[in-house]
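User: Teach me something about this protein's shape.
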Amino acid sequence: MQTVNNKIIFILILLMFFITNAYAKGQRKNFLSHGPSVSSFAQGETALNNLDDPSIIFHNSSLLNYFNFNTVTLSRYNLFDGTSYNSAAINFRLFKNFSVGFNAVDLASGDVELRADPFDSPKVIRTNQWAYILALATEIKPLRLGLGVNAKYIYQDFYEKKNGGYSLDFSMSRFFENVDFGYFRTNFGLGFSAQNVYGSGIKLDEYKEDFQNIFVLSTLMQIPVVYHFESKDTLTFSFDVRNEDQHNEFCAGLEYKFIEKYAVRGGYYNNHITAGFGAQIYSFIVNYSIDFNEIDIINRFSLSFKWGQKTKADSALEKEAQAALNKERLSIIQAEKMFDKAKKYYSQKQYLYATNLLQKIIMQYPQYESPNFYYNKIKKYMEEKSSSALESNFEEYSYAAGYTSYYKNDYYGCLKEWAKYLQFDDTNEEVKDYYNKINKILTDSIREKEKKKFENEAKDMLNAGINLYKNKRWISCIKQMEKLQAFVKDSKYTSSFNYYSLAKNYIDKSVEELSKTVNRNKKTSPKIQRQPAEQTAEKEVVIDEKMADKKYSEGLILYAKGKNLEAERTFELVLRLNPGHLRAKKALEHLRK
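Assistant: First, the predicted structure itself:
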């Protein structure tokens, strides 16, 4: 159902954009009917970036739904010859599902000299244009779709002529979290805004000037940077397509954020190149950007202050969740050291040593993406090198062929390839180490028998688990595959990780199937639903307490990180695995309040 909702939202936004594009109208009037994107000037005017700046209400007010705090921002553009563009914005999270924001903008001309004739004494005046914007934002919970509306009053003071008018904007946005993208998961954003869809215009003389219609379709892709074990850095790409006065413009932005606090940015819009940086210091956020254009360089400064951030109540669940998070942080210190060592081996092209460390980390911490990224990268590279008929570097080919043979348990083929390699480079201690290790295995007949016994037992356990999966006995499958993982985890054979990975794959698939039953049960009527006898029997007899406790800890960590929706689904799954799990029941009750 969620997939269907996502498709509906995407199609709806696209349709609205193309319809408004076909019927765009209006004339180019005053700057403050839309203004630059104050919030993301260093990102090519992209509307979805920089969600810590409330002046985005000038661009897409539905984004206020994603603020869980109150914010006030002051900003200033130094433009040309004394002109300036100043903004003051504030937003409040009034209720759980309702936000309000206000933005006041001034475009000041600087000193202007008026003369009746060239010989007249000048009269120094200053002109101003003002925009006052009231924004309201809410969210349609079932679709997780943000909606926003702006009411704008625009006033022009040209000294001798003054007048004002109003207009209305409409906007929507949707963020998709944990979208599969290659080796890792990304966050994806989609937004649409229709500006000046209704308004009075401004009449300074006998001619009335309408506010032009502006339609913007925005996208954002946020990719985790997997260089660190627990990545807190992100690389964000964002794009806008703007239709204004029946002309389309394209904007693009790029942001790299360090440890969720410091950011460097760049952008492009309408033949302009921009750059900037930002930093969060306690409750203050400082941003600076520069616009390189054909007339002069424009500088923008802004300062934001955050307060009233929504924090969880001091309950037993929060304390338990924080304790689980702290325990996890302490336990990964050693893993981070191993990961740094594995990356060092990777950079030195010692892929055997790197793979060995990465496999250990993945077995212990399967939820972290960075080790998996490097492991999959090595595996793919080795497979490509060993299978390419065009590989001209025999040294690299022999290394890769030996690597792939080693992890396929083809020890004889592995020795053959590495013997060739050592003829090219007899100083490689890594290959020598593994070459001697395999030689010892092959000369030890007792160990070979043990290996065969291990293989047979592991295969039997794997096949048993696969049969349980095929018969839709998800919990029994999880228990069987956990048994297989425990069996291979401490073994010394290279095929151990293959069995561990296969078992993990079936555990994940079984958990996914169980999650589907949880979601279906939530949507069904209160009437008792009949189930197949086999599944009913399994529910009564097979209870996976170990897996339930494991998932409960995962739910606590998700909750401590503020991912309430994911935590709720995980606690529901805990109760599917073990209906008698009292702490999961209490956690769900707390979340649903």
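Now, about its shape. DSSP finds 14 helices and 18 strands in the chain. The longest strand covers residues 162-181. If you'd like, I can walk through any region in more detail.
User: That's plenty for now, thanks!
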